[in-house]
Amino acid sequence: MEKIIKAAVDRGASDLHIKAGDVFRARIDGRLVPLTKQALTPEQTKAIAMRLIPNEEDRGRIEKLTDYDCSWGAPGIGRFRVNILRQRSSFMIVMRVIPFEVPSFDKLKLPEVMRRITEAERGMILVTGVTGSGKSSTMAAMINHINASKNKHIVTLENPIEFLHRDLQSSITQREIGVDTESFRSGLRAALRQDPDVILIGEMRDAETVDTGMKAAETGHLLLSTLHTPDAQSTIMRIMAMFPPEEQEVVRVRLAETLHAVVSQRLLPRADGHGRVVAAEVMLVTSTIRELILDGEKINEIRDYIAEGREQYGMQTFDQHLGDLVQSGDVTFEVALAAATRPSDFQLKMQTFKRKSTTVRSSDVGGAPPMLDAGFDTGSGMDFLKG
Description:
- The protein has helices at about 1-10, 40-50, 55-60, 105-110, 115-120, 135-150, 185-190, 205-220, 230-240, 250-260, 285-295, 300-310, 310-315, 320-325, 335-340, 345-365, and strands at about 15-20, 25-30, 30-35, 65-75, 80-85, 90-100, 125-130, 155-160, 170-175, 200, 220-225, 260-270, 275-285.
- It is of the alpha/beta class.
């Protein structure tokens, strides 16, 4: 098992799938590919699950487990977030690779405004996106930035603990749900009595956790957490929908006052076929956006204000960042168009840019083609420009 897992990690796998009746599979550059030819038996899969479960008590009740989370590591191989589940009455295991090295903003190629967002003294910062969009890495980079530059007490509540942080300028207390504290809710309530400056919650799962998180922000703490929402606008709507209708007006006011920023992200395959790149939407809660949240009926205008605030505040929509990634050659036009929030508008803007770029190039006698045009060498994807 260790040899197969190491081979997958060496090939840059982000996840491994181990299932009875199937071969070992790994997600490499976003695609799920087979690693072996021989299918695993239910007995083999159960034996692997037993090796991954960290404590004797849980191993003793393996036959009763249906969904189980833990972490596992091996020298020379790596650390993993592990989910053991039942399907068709046999076991399946999904392992997420956790790098030993805590990532930085530069390594993840996140927008420069992320540094300024993370340096806030108080408020809620939410990192959102679908499963596998790199939220954990972004949160780790934020904690790493605070740890390296501020004298703070950082308390994290994770299920399980992923990146291991060393105390640098800050003191970091990392608590694992089910091991160090009972739940996100109880751990968060306790964290408020542990003299924290920064609190990280692995996920905002319910109204009670959101309520306690807002209380933390209201009392002067910086709170970082994640939500499974596709963009900033839907994040606000999802939080509101967690609460009963009679409470939503009060929650709207509290959210407008406590929310500092929302960073939504997606991972896209690189144009060269090697690895993936982050596309990010970044919303800072300015006075204008705060008013839109308070109004309630104008939440659908938020995306336009994010786009308008790019130059002044460093905000950006997904489609703005996708345009940058196409122009820099990091992703192909086809991939960006498929990921765009407003595909028709995105296509039109790219077409306008192409025409301007062509005009500049034709007047650049003897000069090299502008760098910004590099991302448009996408073959058939340019057919729509020929007219």
